[in-house]
Amino acid sequence: MKKFTREKMLDSVSGFNAEWDIIIIGGGATGAGVAIDSSLRGFKTLLLEQSDFGKGTSSRSTKLIHGGVRYLQQGNFSLVMEALKERGILYKNAPHLVHNLKFIVPRYDWWEGTFYGVGLKLYDMMAGKFGFGDSKLLSKEETVGLIPTIETNGLRGGVIYYDGQFDDSRLLINLMQTAADNGATVLNYFKVINLLKTNNLIAGVAVKDIESGKEYEIKSKVVINATGVFSDEIRRIDDPACTELVEPSRGTHIVLDKSFLPGDSAVMVPHTDDGRILFAIPWHNKVLVGTTDIPVNNPELDPIASEDEIEFLLHHAARYLTKDPSRNDILSVFSGLRPLVKSGDNENTAAISREHTINISRGGLITIAGGKWTTYRKMAEDTVDQAILLAGFEQKKSQTENFKIHGYTLENPVNSELKIYGSDSIRVQMICNLNKMYELIHPKLNICKGEVIWSVRNEMARTVEDFLARRRRALFLDAQASIEAAPIVAKLMAKELGKSRKWEEDQISAFNKIAKNFIL
């Protein structure tokens, strides 16, 4: 494993005065995918993220790697088939983070068995060799056996099918490490403040190091805008008169105790009051319920759930679970923004496709927008193909379809909590075994102190939020416990980074400000 530190990445930028081949703006799933694809094709690649990797959309998903049953309902077969293929590829290349998950669709009306049974059989057929398992009808008894807390009043049975689950921000960190392992330079807290032009054509970026305040002008043959919901902000720097490309939508999730959904199966509700699909999913020994789909005018890095969304999720969870959750049962609530591609005057974002679009401006700015986590690799491949054409690079085929992602392993670690680190788990365990670093940062969080040290040394964690929200998922799983753990994390990080007591206090304050939006 190559050294993955911000200092090393900064040295790469400061020590390279020539022109980069490709600069990527945006450190989410798509940007990371582009960095891997570009570096594997041999291009000198630089990725710049204004905040932490995955701070926005890419850490706030429903944690599913799936074809998209909803798109099957819409008749968008091409998107479903592409996503099912990509699901299989990701399962093969990152088995330490992507796994098979059983989904149960409860049946309460006589016609649902045939309707959903046939639809999910079609889903199986479209997956082909990339399938995760065959769907089938379940009796009432079988359904209750898999979902003991399912509402039994009027229950006729269920349908079982299989899809993929993952930890989004953990995968993103591994993608960044994969890119760096193969020669790319990736930097968090590096904000693009302007686009450089020569003869009205994009020639690089002006950036600011958020940590030091230092500004740089960096030249590049190609600049790729992979900033998701912020795509139009970057496009307006290039062309203030450009028409908007992205229609952001907010999806909110609530997290409950495992007792609301014991076992290892998820529930999929195919039709809610607003027509959306709803999921209740086991995740990190908790239950994740989501999602909503609300149009958003002004995208934010830290979107906040509305009261209506929270009540919507509680209402539908109570409708299908025997144990009705209340506001007091919510351990964490979080929202993410989807970068949907605009579709005329359609105000119903739930009806807008997740298919991706590549836009090339007159100035040569390449923007990749839309898509979803599952298809990040194909989006990246298509984007780099366009960059090759635009810059006149030597034609080289993408290498990512069969390329193993950093952390790849088929072995399970001794400590199952460290499985998320994949092949790095043994090194994390070694740190945890030293000097009482095996102690937990909080009784309700199965996270040892050594993991904080590891994340600073090897995963570019720079803030308390970086660790508690994205390197480990404490903020998303139990917001109050993460607030109580913040002082311990701040102290450990301050020592590792050589920071002052004032830095610790500022970090705790900043984290608490963000975390309060995860608590009702």
Shape: globular
CATH superfamily of the largest domain, by name, is D-Amino Acid Oxidase, subunit A, domain 2
Instruction: Report the uncertain regions.
Output: 345-353
Looking at the overall shape, the CATH architecture of the largest domain is: 2-Layer Sandwich
Named CATH topology of the largest domain: D-Amino Acid Oxidase, Chain A, domain 2
- Kindly report how far apart the N and C termini lie: 41 Å
**Average predicted confidence as pLDDT:** 92
The rounded Rg comes to: 23 Å
Derived from helix and strand composition plus strand pairing, the structural class reads alpha+beta
CATH level-1 class of the largest domain: Alpha Beta
Percent of residues in helices comes to 25-40%
User: Please, how many domains?
Assistant: 3
Biggest sheet details = 10 strands, mixed
The count of strands amounts to: 20
- What portion of the residues fall into strands of 2 or more residues? 15-25%
Q: Tally the helices: what do you get? A: 16
Give the gist of this structure:
This protein is an alpha+beta fold. Helix content is 35%, strand content 23%.
Notes on the protein architecture:
Helix content is 35%, strand content 23%. It has 520 residues and is α+β, with helices and mostly antiparallel strands. It folds into three domains: 6-57 and 170-245 and 351-391, FAD/NAD(P)-binding domain (3-Layer(bba) Sandwich); 90-165 and 247-342, 2-Layer Sandwich (D-Amino Acid Oxidase, Chain A, domain 2); 416-518, Alpha-glycerophosphate oxidase, cap domain (Helicase, Ruva Protein, domain 3, Orthogonal Bundle), CATH 1.10.8. Helix 2 (29-40) packs across helix 10, helix 11 crosses helix 12 and helix 12 (449-458) crosses helix 15. The model is unreliable at 345-353 (pLDDT under 50).
